[in-house]
Amino acid sequence: MDQYRIFGAELSPYSVKVRSYFRYKGIPHQWIVRNADSAAEYQKYAKIPIIPLVVGPDDEAMQDSTPIIEALEANFLVPSIYPADTTCQFLSALIEEFGDEWGNKWMFHLRWARDEDCASAGGRIAAMNAPKNDEAARLAIREQVMEHMRGRVHFVGSNEVTAPQIEQSFRDAIPLLDAHLKKFPYLFGYRPAFADFGLWGQVYCAWTDPTGSAWIEGQAPHLLDWIHRMLRPVAEGEFVDWTQLHETLAPFISSQIGDLFMPWTLANATCMTEGKDAFSVQLNGETWSQGPQKYHAKSLQVLREKYHAVAGEKKLTEVLAATGCLAGLQG
Ligand SMILES: N[C@@H](CCC(=O)N[C@@H](CS)C(=O)NCC(=O)O)C(=O)O
Fold first, then answer.
1. 73-85 average pLDDT score
2. CATH superfamily to which 4-75 belongs
3. What distance in angstroms lies between residue 67's CA and the mean position of ligand 1's atoms?
4. Under 8 Å CB-to-CB from 87, ≥6 apart: which residues?
5. CATH 3.40.30.10 placement within the chain
6. Does pTM top 0.90 for this prediction?
């Protein structure tokens, strides 16, 4: 087999993120729906029970979307998803991380918090898992999925206290992204950067669900175009400089990453270090409380390492300070 195999699902933001990357890079691949039919093959390679799972032509298995893309990027150099400008390159990594970690709260919360979204996603999962079943059998699986997932929003920190804050964050982000994507087809100009893939996976999945779709389609035509464009991204030109981006991208970074994601991820990491089973943090003057999320502490560390490699860049430091992201990265 001389192509990669991606075991994934249309409803999995990290899976579609990786598939979009493969499509953009023109890397030969086969998309394999992770269901009962592919279970045995999947089990042969998966070290942990998550998707996507990528199996290379040499039979090497990879999991975790960010390192998967980084590993491929080292072998498939063009077209690069890293802007040459150091400031943009780091900001792209920051937004990629934000998409995976905070954008996932938007997506996961919206998908499983309301009955109509649960029913929609549950129905699609049932159809994916058992495509040959009749309707009654599918509805039974849908019920099981809904039952199982409804109680799980706490996995992304969604609870009675945080749910309105998660929703407000997404509602604020939508017009900010729309204003930026009105000017450029992709977040860093005329070709997709790492940031586009990470953020898009979450936003695309939110848009496939009824509530997210209503919020986006009602008010954000340019964001909607980007959602479609990123399914099969193509380079339309070059990356552009921060001087051209900052007017519309800085407000998004500041409102979502500086004000919310950075203080949240720091509080989460402190909670883990102190071995506590819950934490509270003030976000935009409101109290946010949840149990710790282990994976995020690890990815904050990785993000800091990326920052330390370029910490001497004056322009980057200025942008991070102005958007409220610097202190958390320096830790
Ligand atoms: N950090 C991982 C996250 C992957 C992930 O959470 N995948 C979800 C689906 S979107 C999953 O497989 N969940 C399985 C489960 O929760 O049992 C990545 O970036 O690939």
1. 98
2. Glutaredoxin (3.40.30.10)
3. 14
4. 242, 313, 315, 316, 319
5. 4-75
6. yes
